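User: I'll paste a sequence; please echo it back and then give the predicted structure.

Assistant: Echoing your sequence first, then the prediction.
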Amino acid sequence: MGDNTVEHQGAGKAITIQSSNIHLGDGLPDYARENILRVASKYFGRLNTASAHFTKEGITYRCSVNIQMGGLPTKSAEGKDKDIYLAFNAALTKVAKQLRRTKRELREDKGERVDKERGPARADQPDTSC
């Protein structure tokens, strides 16, 4: 009952899939890696490190996912389910939400400066929607 660790290193990306006292098989680590990469490329694309850790508590699986991208702080979340894949999906969905919010905040910060410059110019334009 040791610690199972599967690491994936490529193009500067390190994704670690770990479990305590659970045999993950071949499918789950590949599934986890593919989905972490999909989420990373969707939001920022500069994945530094990521990990997923699985444990079993009674009949429930707990999965924690950590993703660190670019210069951002690490985003972490946890999911629980009787199905190990659903536990992973729940955790990854929460991390994706954090990344989405961060991206939106960065975009809005950038956008506000542009809007402040353009705002009055738009308001002064005559209405040509006749």
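The mean pLDDT is 82. Residues 68 and 74 are 4 Å apart (CA to CA).
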